[in-house]
Design goal:
The complex is a heterodimer of chains A (about 350) and B (about 300). In chain A, helix 2 crosses helix 3, helix 2 packs parallel to helix 4 (about 135-145) and helix 3 packs across helix 4. A 6-stranded mixed β-sheet of chain A has the order 6-7-8-3-9-10, sandwiched between helices. Chain A has helices at about 40-50, 90-100, 105-120, 135-145, 165-180, 195-200, 215-220, 225-230, 345-360, and strands at about 5-10, 15-25, 30-35, 55-60, 65, 75-80, 155, 185-190, 200-205, 210-215, 235-240, 255-260, 265, 280-290, 290-300, 300-310, 320-325, 325-330, 335-340. Helices cover about 25% and strands about 30% of the residues of chain A. Chain A has about 350 residues and is of the alpha+beta class. The longest helix of chain B has about 35 residues, at about 75-110. Classes of the chains: A alpha+beta (about 350), B mainly alpha (about 300). Chains A and B meet through strand 6 of A and helix 12 and helix 13 of B.
Chain lengths: ~350, ~300
Amino acid sequence: MHIVAKGLYKRFGTFEACKNVDLEIPPGKLVALLGPSGSGKTTLLRLLAGLEYPDAGEIYFDGRFVNHLPPQERNIGFVFQNYALFRHMTVFENIAFGLSVRKAKKDAVRRRVAELLELTGLQGLDNRRPHQLSGGQRQRVAFARALAPQPQLLLLDEPFAALDAKVRKDLRGWLKDMIRRVGLTAVFVTHDQEEAMEMADEIFIIHQGRVEQAGRPQDIYQLPRTPFVASFLGDSYPLQNPSAFTGFESYAAVEEAYFRPEYVRLLTAAERQYFPAANRGTVVNVSYRGNNWHVEADVEGQRVQGVRSLDQAPLRPGDEVYVIFRRLLAFVHGEPRWLENKTLQVKQLHQAEERQSLAFV
Amino acid sequence: MEPAVTARTVPEQQVPEKKTDSKPDSHHLTESRWVRIVLIGIALAFLGLMLVIPLVFVFVEAFGKGWALYWEAIREPDALAALRLTLSVAAIVVPLNTLFGLAAAWAVTRFSFRGKQWLVTLIDLPFAVSPVIAGLIFVLLFGNRGLLGPWLSALDIKIIFAFPGIVLATLFVTFPFVARELIPLMQSQGKNEEEAAACMGASGWQIFWRVTLPNIKWGLLYGVILCNARAMGEFGAVSVVSGHIRGQTNTLPLHVEILYNEYQFTAAFAVSTLLVLLAVVTLVVKQVAEWKNRNEAA
């Protein structure tokens, strides 16, 4: 289903949950509404579902104006954060609900439920009640139940929030695959950037009731349009007065820039020989992140975060360290722009890295 | 020598830790045995003195002069008329207040609107007002000298000292029971299940019958039972509006009082046993309802 929203506005009391949101979702796409809690992303989802009505703005499904339509008539499936399974019904009855309220024939209901039980891998659980299921199974029942009446749009509100980390990772891939296979348009709300990037074809970053940026995950990550997006999708930290750092002297007009830790190199005095373009600083904090070290250092009066791979010599707080920014993100007249380190030619850097990794073998 | 000492202290530290692990709350939260026995003893003694003995006494008095007298007291026409009146009042009041309670709980828990807090407070009003005052309100409104009195008598409608007055007073007094029971229950359940049903295409009535009602049925039943118990047992408010006409406007509690005032103790206690039995049934159903509710929530 092709979804278009124009100027959506919704207020609860004095709280503006949704401020003139425009969005367009092409059919067959899996879309994430990503934002911190309280950003209005769930309100947006509920507006699409018809569970809330907008104070202003228009919603079109396949060109049809649906503002006034109740959820019953929108042809949608909705998966709630806590799943909202009917607690007094069995798994079978839960999945059959959307069919039986439409007075479907018993045979057809049984066939469709069996089909969905198989699709979701819940065979044999049809007589269980929700409280007898694990979190992951409940999530799948909620999914099967929403799919039963064959909706054209599936809306999911934080579908993985109630699950533990391991089950969450397994189900992400499963759900994405499942939505592809059924071939419907789906919108899910999440505050987890990793989840959004892994699953979505397109991400809408929601902040304070507005769409801050929309696009493919890789495009947004590579060129965030605002400091908020830069810090919300992936890590990024502000850096004052970047011209104080070697390689960025020519950007005297830029007062503030942002850096991602993966573009920061922190080197010991011994490693420094290949990288003359470095600022000297002191290690403040080192934390172990499993696949790398996260290092904080004080350089030129500012706190800088960077990563060091596990096969490099470990740093300790108090150590002398040399810091190089490979690139910095600046917002010039509101437009994002990457500033490259002028003393580091990309080619040089690659060569140096090669040499360095050889030196460590 | 020192290693030996530390080696011994380590297992000693571990043992008490394991003990507290297996019984997490018994250590911090429990008083000494004697305090427990004394507290439980006081509670039991109080219950026995204030509740059990009087209840047993009702039956002892009722049956004290034999089954024959008991039966006679209950089969006496005025007693039967009182029983009939009480049952008819309950038959009207309980369904009405069930509907009202459902509607109020629904409105309060499913919608947000201006003055919602006021509505919640107003629902409690009958609990806060003395039943006698509640009765008086209706006398002042509908009585002969009341606000609407002249108009009502012109139309030849009798409310005070008649059946409608008793129904109104009972309605007023038993008004909060169902709503009070349902509001916290429905609040804790939230509206997601109903929203899910709506998204799947269920109509308002389908949502109510197939999702909401099954979720609240035990709480609703308990509210209805409490409402019924009070509707049958109400004395104060009904006493003010009834007029105490034997065989016509006397409910069971009023009938008991009249018998007692006439020194017909056996008869008074015999009729009382009917109300006591009702109370026992109420408690049993309440227990079952709570037990069922817990089982289904688990």
